Amino acid sequence: MRLPHTTRALSLIAALFVCTAEPDLSPDAKPVQEPAPAEVANPMASFARMVSGEWRVTFQSGTSIDTWHWGPGEHSMRVMTDGAGAVGEPWRELQVFYWNSGRKQVCLLGLSPFARGVSEGTIEFEGETADAVFDLYQTGHRRKMGLRWAFDGPDKYHEILLEATGPAGLEPMNEWDHVRSATLTATRPRAAEEAPKPSERLKVLEALLGHTWEAKGEAKGDWATGDAFHVQSTFEWVPYADGIYARVIAPTKDGEPLHLLDAYVYHHTGTGALRCLALSNRGGVYEGDLTVLDGGALQLDLRGYEGDRVVPHIVRFDFEQDGTLRDRVWSLEGAERTLMLDVHHQRLEPKND
After folding, report:
1. Rounded to whole angstroms, what are the CA distances from 182 to 47, 82, 101, 121, 155?
2. What pTM, to 2 d.p., does this model score?
3. H or E element: which one contains 10?
4. Rg (CA), the chain
């Protein structure tokens, strides 16, 4: 018996740190998300032009390089920006663009080292241009911002950054030209004493970094289908931007592993909370706060957008004395909780050649 579609999506959310469900790969498997209307059948299609090579910018105060990567199921894009200041000081930004079926919009999330910036908003392509509006939360205040892209062929676009500072609304404040290079810039390794460390705000997640976590076996919960699964998760701290990027895959017998889920954990400068955004290969979007409970357990209170449905869930992680991670998921209906998943995950040791 196959897991119900909602349960499979939930188990992907549990994979914020270590995913806990094998996707349905059978020929007759049905997607968890209903087909989108024709006018938004492929809302991320315009972003395909950004993939391959790197986008370079040179300005008076330094340089920056953007690389674009598809998320699971090509429902999202992850953008890594590596920059250097006028005297070579490094910085990094992270952006995520993703289709939210519940809101019927392409949304954006951005993490920046400058005044601990967190950006939230939407973006829309129209032909050879794109326009975005977003709130930029920085230490002590919130700014109303906009972006405008104008493409000049496949390998160049002009970017204008706008800000609303008065009754006139959004007005240009800066602009740059991005040019694609097919040659990727080599990353300079940093000495241990130069490497930055995760902030105190992310200390609760430090034990997950630098390891691969594996879960396999038969899932057990109140729904008790006994369906088999095998997944692996890795966790990367993004220096300077100070966020955590989790990637979940399902190994396959032949070919490339299946990319199941991307998740991002960060400290929200505006709310002061730890936040999570998780994006599944079936188009599910899950977001909410991360809380540290008494005893060190971690709890996620999530709102999930699956097609036209909005589904609330609670995910809890307990670090066990034997080194495993216990992972439980509950569905919510009013004040009632229903246990849907209860599994343990092992930390894989590196193989010696």
Report:
1. 17, 16, 33, 30, 10
2. 0.87
3. helix 5-18
4. 21
The CB-side HSE value for 58 (13 A sphere, CA atoms) comes to 3
What is the spatial distance between Cα 261 and Cα 263, in angstroms, rounded to a whole number?
Answer: 7
Q: Does domain 5-35+194-348 have CATH number 2.60.40.10?
A: no
The 10s digit of each residue's pLDDT in 126-183 is 999 999 999 999 999 999 999 999 999 999 999 999 999 999 999 999 999 999 999 9
Q: Contacts for 61-64 with beta carbons within 8 Å, 24 or more apart?
A: 61/85, 61/86, 62/86
The CA-to-CA distance between both ends of the chain, in Å, stands at: 39
> In the CATH scheme, what is the code of domain 41-181?
2.40.128.20
Burial class (CB in 10 A: 0-12, 13-18, 19+), 15: buried
CA–centroid distance for 114 within its chain: 20
Q: Domain-by-domain residue ranges, the chain?
A: 5-35+194-348, 41-181
